[in-house]
Specification:
There is one protein chain. By secondary structure, the protein is mainly α. It has helices at residues 3-9, 16-24, 30-36, 38-47, 54-65, 74-85, 89-96. The longest helix has 12 residues, at 54-65. It starts with a helix and ends with a helix.
Length: 97
């Protein structure tokens, strides 16, 4: 196990499967996740056709907040889902170009 694996595994909500998924989308450290944010990380995962539920989105946010994903307030969960489901600005630019 690499140091970055170990670092990500120390975060709440993230197990080996989640860490492997994050690594597959280029997120290898806590700093990478923090810089990318939960919504963008979730979008990258979905863009790779990796089948994950919204719980993964909540788990990522919880990892950043150091709380269990189930303790994230419902209004924040709703906002995360809304942001995650918004069309990516790059996709909009492709359509209008």
């Amino acid at each position: 196990m690499t140091a970055s694996h170990s670092e990500l595994l120390q975060l709440k909500n993230l197990g080996m499967a989640s860490v492997n998924i994050l690594r597959a989308v280029g997120i290898n450290t806590h700093a990478d996740l923090k810089r990318t944010g939960a919504v963008e990380a979730y979008r990258r995962i979905r863009a790779r056709d990796i089948n994950v539920s919204k719980v993964m989105l909540y788990a990522l946010q919880g990892a950043l907040m150091n709380v269990h994903w189930n303790d994230i307030p419902p209004d924040l969960k709703a906002r995360l889902v809304s942001e995650a489901e918004m069309p990516d600005q790059n996709d909009l630019n492709k359509v209008t170009a």
